[in-house]
What does this fold into?
Amino acid sequence: MEKINNKEAISLPISCSLGITVLVSSQIIASHCLSSSLINTGYISILALVLTFIICKLYKRFIGISFLDITEFLGGKILKFLVGITFLFYFTFTASIVLCKTVNCLQIVYYPMTHPNYTVLLFAITAGIACNLKNNGFLRATFILVPIVIIAIIFIFVGNLKNFNYENIFPIMGNGWNTTFLEGSTNLFTFGGITYILFLPQNLKRPDKFMSVSIISTIISSALLTFITATIILMFNRNVTSGQLFPLYIAVRYIEFGTFFQRLDSAFLLILNIAICSFLGIYANLCLEIIKEISSISDTKPISFPFVLLLYACTILIDAKFELEFMQNQFLKVFFFVILTLGLAILILANLKKSLKGEIRNE
Amino acid sequence: MKIMDIFKYKPPENYDFNIQTIENASVQDLNFETIEEKVFLSYQKNLEFIQSKFNSLINSDIVIRKFKIICKNKQYNSFLVYIDGMTDSVNINDFVLKPLMLRNKSNTYIEENKSIKKFNYNSKKNVSHTSNKNAKSDLSNYIYTNLIPNNNLSKQTEFSKIISDINSGNCVLFVDTLNIAFDIDAKGFKQRNIDRPQIENVIKGPQEAFVENIRTNTSLLRRLVNNQNLIIESIEIGNLSKTKCALCYIQNIANNDLIAEAKYRLNNISIDSLISSGELEQLIQDGSSAAIPQILSTERPDKCVKGMYQGRAVILVNGNPYALIIPSVLTDFLASPEDSNLIPVYANFLKAIRLLAFLVTLLLPGMYIAITNFHQELFPTELLFSILVARENVPFPIIFELLLMEVSFELIREGGLRTPSAIGSTLGIVGALILGDAAVSANVVSPILIIVVAITGLSSFVIPNFSFGFHLRIYRFIFTILGYICGFLGIGIGIYVYLAILCSIKSFGVSYLSPISPNISGFSLKYFIPPFWKQEYRNDFLASKKQVSQSKYSMKWKKEYTDGKNK
It folds into this structure.
């Protein structure tokens, strides 16, 4: 993969978090924490920032080295392979969940007569094409598209200001301290970009700027999460939030600008599709990079389409709505924490090993 | 039938001529005859060689003029070779044949004459010109210095170079006993005068365009650049055609790697012939699978000079009035030469219009079809009703309607190009008005669709670059089909893939979407141009040797006035 500059790098974790936030996590936060959603959002944003900071600090001794190489340094090739497979499975699984959710939303709203498998195939082919392009074309496209998506989210927030019911944030603690802070911390999975950050340093043109890139991307992701959650919470009551498949889309329907632009929901759909394509492109490419690192494959292009077919297969396996609900509410959260813990543990242990080796050498 | 007719010759009744095709083309076909011989001492050998190489017995325009030259009061057999129609007869008669054939002071001069002496700077004495040591060299030097009054004369020994020069309009003199030939510039073929640009017209700005002759084109560049650092390197391309190309750049501005890469690509082209800059464009661009133009082609010298001053290189091809500018990025294809001649507000307004035209050309038909088929709620209710009413009597699906009109529009456009200019405009009017009106009256298409196709067509004319306009026309059909298949989902996917393709393209090592992505220096909207006094830096993506193009205070008169006032 060609090295990327800092600005492009900032857009990547944002795009990863956006896919999960817009489609999956914002609704989970709203339905779980209710009126305390905004507090929960702030709380998990702080947690995400702290975690990002810790990861960056742990990377200080491994500037420009890939996460899987650090794993190899810690436990040899077997550990590298096992960790690589685990991360590969996580990213494929997350991409499948987001894709499945997108396709379900699209089917309900616009394509009731079309079998969702065709729509999934369309997205999978797009991801395949993106992975086949030279010179990080999909990454650079993400850099251009992410600002458009950010503007769209702010537009939805601003456009709905007059529809907000500020009483929805009361009681301020929602279902209580426990739900907001203890159980609520599991909502950290919305920051899917943190897991991407683990794989960022080796692709940076200037690895010394890794910390600033990571922190900025986490701050922007937090702000976007706040905008989305605020829009949902302030617009809808408890029943609508938990019942709707895609509350942000419903929020767009309420935006009115004069008599000409009466319904902008399909325009939002256009931007959402672009954002999902970008998300899938990044995740598919990351998976291919992991495959490349844990195997002896030198060029990932020949396996890009077989991989997206695997992604397609994973997505169409989830065919019932309750399965999807379970996967996104439970499995995705647990898996995220497993991955995050694994990542942090490897970095901490690798740092320790490096310190010990340094001490031995000094002695 | 008479009996005698049986014995008479009868020509075949069915005349059937076929060229036998060669089934297996081999790599050996690429190996062409190379001329390695050098000029012979013998007059006869040289004559036979030239006659055989030029097939002078069957080639009607090859002229071999045999005569005897007088040199130092001696006569030598010699002949002159040139191509009739490519040389200036008056020039050859007056400045080649006359001084060589007619007796005059120069050719009757004998070296014992004391008047010509060479000053020996070492001994500080006047010494006589020594001639006996190397008589042949003396003869050739004598002819070169005394007998041919031509400003562009050279001695050649290689037949390959001699033949190439004869083909380009020179005449060559062979003299008996000399193993060199005199290559005399006597070009005199008819060529087009410098004219107004045909395609890239501007209202305010220079009105000169390139012509077919490469030397005229280089002179246009040289005149505008007006700096000794302008390098014009000559490169021959084509094993058979040996087409002269020129790589032009400003030595102390252009990036060395860019120039080296350009030279590398130009010097490593193995083809038979090169006729146009369009062919060369295909041969040197990074990749062509996405049908997106990657090299800017222009007929305007001022545009080339502007590019060179930014750090780009220009390639000229002999016989073609278009220059190639490398590297080129997307914003170059949406820029008009007019932009720099207008004040920034006007120029940026036009650039905004062009950006809008780019989006409309690419997306409008696809968007229309997506909205009418899938996302009707985006239209206001009244507009939706009027569209439905207009489409009520149309029996075809909307995709058929749209494709029918789009294809008709392309036919009109192509027909207008191919017909003479007087009829071309009429054809456009007939096509647009009568065909459109008749189609609506016959309920084949709806009136709103005519509006959509017309706006798309108009927008496509706004795109300043012909190749880029073509690219948009093709991609428009793809977006139309995507919009028809799955509405905004298809359009969204199309936009993402299109953008990713654009981002993946590189033109001579420069990202196609520069300076937008990769964004090196800032988040400013670099598509628009700042005022001229603010253009302090050259484009960073070109990595030119001199990044600063003007001083911070370009309007020194203003600064000095302000400073004086403050004092």
In short: The interface with chain A takes residues 287, 371, 374-375, 377-378, 380-381, 486-493, 495-497, 499-506, 511, 513, 516-520, 523 of chain B (CB under 8 Å). Confidence is low (pLDDT under 50) at residues 113-133 of chain B.
